[in-house]
Amino acid sequence: MPNGEAVIEVKNLGRLFxxxxxxxxxxxxxxxxxxxxxxxxxxxxxxxxxxSICAILDPSTGSVKVDGFDTVRDASKITSRIGYxxxxxxxxxxxxxxxxxxxxxxxxxxxxxVFVERKRRLLEFSGLHPFLQRRTRHLSGGMQKKLxxxxxxxxxPDILVLDEPTLGVDPLSRxxxxxxxxxxxxxxxxxxxxxxxxxxxKRCQRLAFLLEGRLLxxxxxxxxxDLEEVFLKHIKRVKxxxxxxxxxxxxxxxxxxxxxxxxxxxxFTAVDGISFSVRRGEVFGFVGPNxxxxxxTIRILCGxxxxxxxxxxxAGVDVVRKPxxxxxxIGYxxxxxxxxxxxxxxxxIDFFGSVYGVGSKTLEERKGWVLExxxxxxxxxxxxxxxxxxxxQRLALGCSLLHSPDVLFLDEPTSGIDPASRKAFWEIxxxxxxxxxxxxVTTHYLSEVEACTRVAFLHQGRVxxxxxxxxxxxxxxxGSLEEVFLRLMERGA
Amino acid sequence: xxxxxxxxxxxxxxxRDPVTLxxxxxLPLVMLFLFGYAISLDVKDISMAVYDQDRSQDSQKLIExxxxxxxxIPKYHLDSGQEVNEALDRGKxxxxxxxxxxxxxxxxxYRKAEVQxxxxxxxxxxxxxxxxxATSIVxxxxxxxxxxxxxxxxxxxxxxxxxxxxxxxxPPMKSVNYIVPGLFAVLLMAFPPMLTALAxxxxxxxxxxxxxxxxxxxxxxxxxxxxxPYGITAFxxxxxxxxxxxxxxxxxxxxxxxxLVLTSIxxxxxxxxxxxxxxxxxxxxxxxxxxxxxxTLMPSFLFSGFLFPIATMPYMMQLYTYFFPARYFNxxxxxxxxxxxxxxxxxxxxxxxxxxxSVLFVLASLRFxxxxx
Lengths: 493, 373
What we know:
The structure holds 2 protein chains of 2 kinds.
Chain A: E1 6-17, E2 20-31, E3 35-39, H1 46-53, E4 61-66, E5 69-70, H2 75-79, E6 82-85, H3 97-106, H4 112-126, H5 141-153, E7 159-163, H6 171-185, E8 190-195, H7 198-203, E9 206-211, E10 214-219, H8 221-224, H9 227-234, E11 254-265, E12 268-279, E13 283-287, H10 294-301, E14 309-314, E15 317-318, H11 323-326, E16 330-333, H12 345-355, H13 360-374, H14 389-399, E17 407-411, H15 419-434, E18 438-442, H16 446-449, E19 454-459, E20 462-467, H17 469-475, H18 481-492
Helix pairs in contact in A: 3-5, 4-5, 5-6, 12-13, 13-14
Chain B: H1 2-16, H2 18-38, E1 46-52, H3 57-69, E2 72-77, H4 81-89, E3 95-99, H5 103-108, E4 116-119, H6 124-152, H7 176-190, H8 192-206, H9 208-213, H10 219-248, H11 257-279, H12 285-302, H13 315-320, H14 326-339, H15 343-367
Parallel strand pairs in B: 1-2, 1-3
Antiparallel strand pairs in B: 3-4
Helix pairs in contact in B: 1-10, 2-7, 2-10, 3-6, 7-10, 7-12, 7-14, 8-10, 8-11, 8-12, 10-11, 11-12, 11-14, 11-15, 14-15
């Protein structure tokens, strides 16, 4: 089939899950040799479309053809010739890097000599070579993504389908992944990928923009225009003006003081003697590649795990000595937003309120604000599992704020959330800081870091740089924090 | 070439995961020892309370007869009826013997002397056995008295009717000989299905199954790739408990070892097949674990004849037991160990196992679709 011909044809595709249409009336064609992007907010149907293309999900209406084969009738012909990287890491954790590669080559019947050659090239290109014998469970998230991609490149499929390959990955690993994707594309292969990063969508030749299961636009990025705009235009924004009804906090002095903090896990040093302090009311960004010690640091600061050395003071409490005392003064929201999905929105708020001992009168008042911030006013009785990821994330944020903490810790709170919802999230954070609450946040989105008062760049358990975003950009003489990050990492590594 | 790769991968995962390995090897051994020692249907060393109001040579002789039987230990010598009540209430004694003050006098004046035996009948099966032992001890005691009396009168009498019991299959009547062969059926049903189900559901949870879906691996190959390694692991487990069972507990083995090995391979395939089938019903490891315990461990305890003889169950329940393959292998294993019978008696149970396993594989293969939903 010559380049330019449609290799994937989606016709009137609809997919029903129980009572809800995840996709409907979808029509699009992907041409051979194209780098095609599927963009859209969380819950817009990206994964459903991708799984339909991969022939592992049958359509409820319409049809999908890949290489001329129907995904229902000839599923096995399709699955044996495409590569698919799902959102899950999809690697065998107890196998080593090399064993995973070998396994995926074997089940794709790659001949031994070819495999040896490809393995060498892939490992070198991805930078995984030094970790050949390491078990996959001990790799960082970024490395696991790279390995998962290698496991698909090792059998050189004509069509490669990637479901949010860069989700939750640090900028450096993201750059590596992109280098691998573009290299493979340059060999004339067709690549279909989904993403929630707008800058990535712009790098594709054509993109499909999905919203609530429908195709909103399908064209080249130039023709579609500013993607952030598209997002903001089409997604119902939550406008929140009201400040959180919290008692005003003193806004001077330091809320966090960390001195020579160390943490090692059986011989492996996760945090290697870091020191910094955070002032009251600051929004403090904590940035670094996967495995650089961000989450470990947050956990120590919250008194969840004890440090191996150094001193930590949070909200006036010596966390090393009295880890239990700090818990009433801080809020913590992790990547997995710990809400109870089988409880209603209101039940979750009530539960977390009572856990933190918030009086019922105060709780009523704050509940109203949390519902408003999450955009859930009037939907109090909805089961939490039925609201979208972005809304759930704002609800989780609200729940961690019910007791009006002095310090709020956010660990990659916006991972996998669309740009518009992320923007709404950061507006809430801005309002919070205005009341004197200190916010300590980790993220992989460097555009978000721009909104921080100060930012610390972490690498291999050490702080490489700590300053205001504007000053950092001035020092490195560049317009973007992403560039600062990459230069720091390349220097640090 | 795909199948060997699948099997190799699976073995690596088994060997590197301490939980899987422990469940495959350590847990069965722990259970073997627990059950081998704990479950005993033998009634012996029965704690006895004695309230001897007579305190004569004759009463002493009767008590000695109890001691000499080897079944009873007269632990408590009591002085009042109140104390007898207490000993039974507190469970210190399972049986109390009350000898009346005129016991010796009655015997020596050739009148009937009545001895009272009070039993703890809470667990009827044991109480029945204890009561039988006690009765036969007292009977033989009075028979001896009678012979003595007749001898004094110059009449020498043999027992008028004698019973010569010969116990087959388990001559020492040790229940461990019965329990351990049955345990093979239970243990192989307990762990291999759970491990197999977990191995597949783990791939679902982890997302690796989607890579399998988008690959040339066909459902039967994928399923074989699970059956073979887990079947081999379960077979290893079988050999281990077989060795420990026979060497440590000294269970006599009368039948053909080859036949046992062959039938246990079929049985292991059946139990692994149950795990496969369970894995097609659930998406979470927790669900797989609970479900496999419910369909395997519980019924194999209750309905395999391991502890509760099937022959005494109501007829409908007897039919119900055929749903659980532990029942077939329980019969096979006990027959081979204790009776030493051959294929001519076992073929029907073996056939049932083969049918059972085949149905499971077909069902599991049909239910395994390379689709996420």
